Amino acid sequence: MKQSLLFVPTLKEAPKDAEVRSHKLMSRAGLVKQVAAGIYSYLPLGYRVIKKIENIIREELDKIGSSELLMPALQPRDLWEESGRWDKYGPELMRLTDRKDREFCLGPTHEEIITQVVRDYLNSYKKLPLALYQIQTKFRDEMRPRFGLMRGREFIMKDAYSFHETEAELDEWYKKFAQAYTTIFARCGLATRIVSSDVGQIGGNEADEFMVMSEVGEDTITYCMSCSYAANQEHSGLEEGDKCPVCGGTIKTAKGIEVGNIFKLGTKYSESMNAKVINKDGQQVPVVMGCYGIGISRTLMASVEQHSSDDGIVWPDEIAPFKVHLIPINYDNDVQKEVTDTLYQELIESGIEVLLDDRKERAGVKFKDADLIGLPFRVIIGKDASDGKVEFVDRKQGEKTVLPVAEVINNI
Ligand code: ATP
Ligand code: MG
């Protein structure tokens, strides 16, 4: 891709309301643009990363046997009456009325819709287990939208739902999802910690959250210094220095960003919304459900928060918008142009995603923007091009080397 044709509106200054580093950088690097409080446009560079995260999720969920569907954002009140959540959900639910005075909401989550999708189909235990997911825009009128994509009022989520005959089978799938989540976040460059949490608005019996440890996190995690016990403070009520409820060790606290959440719903929705199957003993029973969320836009934000300095982003390999940034110092110089264009073609032919800074800008401007955008590898084509040499920078290691141009692809 040629940078002159890509829309990357980089900024010298971050917007005034950007408090945390990731929010500042995502605005300055031209990844997102705010439309209103908690509502953002994803610009081409940011949207490339979103699509990479989505595809990692798709790969890992397909592996465990969960298949993708797409449900509507617009949801009729009737279904929310069936589950009893129309009254319970409160002002976070975005409600609206159509021209015939029928009431709807913009989905903050999709338990009602998924139950409506499967209930007529699910008649026998033979159709179970079943695990479905979607990647969709969610709406929540959050009291305090902030930190950019961290807490939006419109945001992208992956939500999955599983259906089972027994609690034991749900337990097995809950573990499968938990393992897939750890892999997904690791591939996005994030180490996560699983902590017990409250079931909250969604309801059910048991829940765990996937936390990225970070000073800018809105959650407080309590964890034991001696064993693997960890819980959200909202759930455990423990304080720093308390005794661990499992082993008696010492409890510590730390801040975390919740990037994912998994719930054992049990029969809360299948009972109220009448999703039943005939079990092996010939009895009609409500299906046992699980639900599993990942905040995709929040994951992007957490990844930038973890992988950046004040000068710019340092993308983890798998979600970088491009792998290589080619920067000719003077693209009007015939030799530099020739070396650049040849390398550009070779990278494309090798299947390596490359961004070529062909803009008519000074080298200093190009370098500043390249620092902000933070692609994993940078190749600078300057005076040495006449000797067939270029400067090669591995952004993560911060190492600069001068290489024969023929060795660039091997080094990537
Ligand atoms: P929180 O406690 O942060 O409000 P939640 O418990 O309401 O999160 P879930 O309903 O479980 O979140 O949603 C699944 C995932 O969606 C969360 O783990 C989080 O990553 C993401 N998410 C939730 N609310 C938002 C939001 N307002 N903006 C961006 N992502 C969000
Ligand atoms: Mg919430």
UniProtKB/TrEMBL annotation:
The organism's place on the tree of life at top rank: Bacteria
Predominant place of localization: cytoplasm
GO process annotations (BP): prolyl-tRNA aminoacylation
SUPFAM superfamilies membership: Class II aaRS ABD-related, Class II aaRS and biotin synthetases
GO cellular component terms given for this protein: cytosol
Catalysed transformations (reactions): tRNA(Pro) + L-proline + ATP = L-prolyl-tRNA(Pro) + AMP + diphosphate
InterPro entries: aa-tRNA-synt_IIb (IPR002314), aa-tRNA-synth_II (IPR006195), aa-tRNA-synth_II/BPL/LPL (IPR045864), Anticodon-bd (IPR004154), Anticodon-bd_dom_sf (IPR036621), Pro-tRNA-ligase_IIa (IPR002316), Pro-tRNA-synth_IIa_bac-type (IPR004500), Pro-tRNA_synthetase (IPR050062)
Primary enzyme class: ligase
Entry's Gene Ontology molecular function annotations: ATP binding; proline-tRNA ligase activity
Keyword match Aminoacyl-tRNA synthetase: yes
All residue ranges annotated as the Aminoacyl-transfer RNA synthetases class-II family profile domain in the record: 33-316
E.C. number(s) listed in UniProt: 6.1.1.15
Subcellular localization: Cytoplasm
Sorted UniProt keywords: Aminoacyl-tRNA synthetase, ATP-binding, Cytoplasm, Ligase, Nucleotide-binding, Protein biosynthesis
Pfam families: HGTP_anticodon, tRNA-synt_2b
Keyword Aminoacyl-tRNA synthetase: yes
Subunit structure: Homodimer.
NCBIfam families: proS_fam_II
Name this protein carries in UniProt: Proline--tRNA ligase
Species: Candidatus Xianfuyuplasma coldseepsis
Gene symbol of the encoding locus: proS
